Amino acid sequence: MALLVHDKGELQSLRYLVNSDHSVPRNLVLKLYTSAHNTDGSPAEGDVPSQTAYYEPYDDSGAVGYGSTPSTGYPSVVNNRNDQDYTNQFGILLDGTRWNARTITTAIKSTTGSGTSGEYTITVSSVTGIAVGHYVSGGGVGSNATVCAINGTTLVLSVPNGSTFSGQALDFGVGTTTASYPEQTFTFTGAANNIYGYYLTRANNMPITVQGVEHAAAVAADAGIAKTGATGTIGQYQITLFEKKYTPTVSGSINLFQVEVDNSTGITTNQRVTGTGIAAGARVVGVQTGSPNDIVLLDKPNTGTVSGTGVFFVNTTENVTLGMGITHTNVGGEANAIPADTTVTGIDELNRVIYINNALANNIQAATGDGITFNASKVTMASHGLVEGDVIYIGAGTANTVTESNTYTIFDVPDANTFTTSPALAGVGSATLYSSIFFAEKFTNGPYNIQNNGDQIKVTLNVSLD
Predict the structure, then answer these.
(1) Using CA atoms, how far apart are residues 67 and 73, in angstroms rounded to an integer?
(2) If both were cysteines, with which of 114, 172, 329, 462 could 371 make a disulfide (CB 3.0 to 4.6 Å apart)?
(3) In Å, how far are 147, 198, 245 from 135, measured between CA atoms?
(4) Looking at residue 189, what DSSP letter applies?
């Protein structure tokens, strides 16, 4: 049975998607598309970026223009926050705080009902047309009430009745959660051919020389990530990684966001810290070398005088992500504990547990071999401009039969020319990188043929969940 997403849940979900509360660092970019895919350019749920769909109006040919700077006046992104740089992208970077997200209710059933103040039930004349999840208004029903259960003519509501009422008119209906954005204008300086519609993508900073250039990226096996001291029990679908920690002598004063350590070797940002006087849940935000002791900066103030031994926990799962393959380094004569094609399906950072899709065929321990290796593929693309957390679409090349064409999040960026993804990539061969597509719409009266300097297209955005 699928979970019901109530209107308030839809509201917060949409706020997150459009970033109206700046809960994610990346806003959305509004882009235009010139491809007449699906016969008339109408978006379909199965659409993905490609050489034949959702390319932008870079030139006046109406054909793919990936890899070359626009000659149409199609704008380069202008940043609107001091913590982002997306000037390599084209389109209009939206300001998340300017979205107006709200729920609009529409009545679909009216009847009469009765209820008692403070109770969560009402009795109605007829339940025909009423369903779980419908909002309820009228009479003495509580504010923002929805139907949680139906038993005959008795309805269980999500909030208690505000007052006692009898035979009062009640409305039942559904809510449409909508986010709207102020009108945006694209002004062209030259011909751009037919513009069929627009779409929204999560911002990234891939240069024009990278985005959409067919087969320009290479997918290859990355160096495996070896872990020792792992444990696992035959028949189970999980592996526990070895707990790694550093235990220097610490000192510090109450209310300060720092502690002194006699040895900072191995201590890095984001490690959890425990110890006398150290706040619960404190994490490392930086390390400063000094004399006679090094100083570790924390994200929480000390709750008392810091003394004794501090424990700095290494996150042994931080370089592991979903979809990675796993192999076992077994001792000679012992069965390999990890079946072929085993991958990571979940990660418990605090308890260092890695969940997997196949049951272990042997114990993982010192006697059978406690070494495991996580494997994935990496993408190589010169000056890709991507950073951890970016969301892009990767299209597998024609000779790449293993890599799945899909939307991925950038997981690790070792250098300016390589990156790995979450879920992890598999396979080898070529690939094409595109901005992802979150929402798309065809112009009702389009396409609009851009022919002259000064031609404009104005877009008012409305995104709905219902």
Answers:
(1) 16
(2) 329
(3) 6, 33, 52
(4) S
**Cα–Cα distance for residue pair 416/411, rounded to 1 Å:** 14
* pLDDT on residue 157: 92
Taken as a whole, the chain contains a residue count of 466
The alpha carbon of 205 is separated from its chain's Cα centroid by a whole number of angstroms, namely 17
Q: Which residue has the tokens 């949409």?
A: 14
* pLDDT tens profile 69-115: 999 999 999 998 888 889 999 999 999 999 998 877 778 899 999 99
Domains of the chain listed by start with CATH number: 101-178 (2.40.30), 245-313 (2.40.10), 380-435 (no CATH)
Distances (CA, A) of 8 to 11, 14, 144, 180, 445: 5, 10, 9, 17, 34
Question: Which of 450, 243, 260 has its CA nearest to residue 353?
Answer: 243
DSSP tag of 364: B
Residues 119, 117: Cα–Cα separation, whole Å:
6
Segments of the chain scoring below 50 in pLDDT: none
Please tell me the pTM assigned to this model.
Answer: 0.83
Under DSSP, the state recorded for 222 is P
Q: Which two tokens stand for residue 391?
A: 């969301």
Burial label for 156, CB within 10 Å (0-12, 13-18, 19+), is middle
Q: Which of 175, 172, 196 is nearest to 14 (CA)?
A: 175
Instruction: List CB contacts of 9: < 8 A, sequence separation 6 or more.
Output: none
Residue closest to 50 by CA, chosen among 461, 433, 448: 433
Backbone angles phi and psi of 401, in degrees to 5: -95, -5
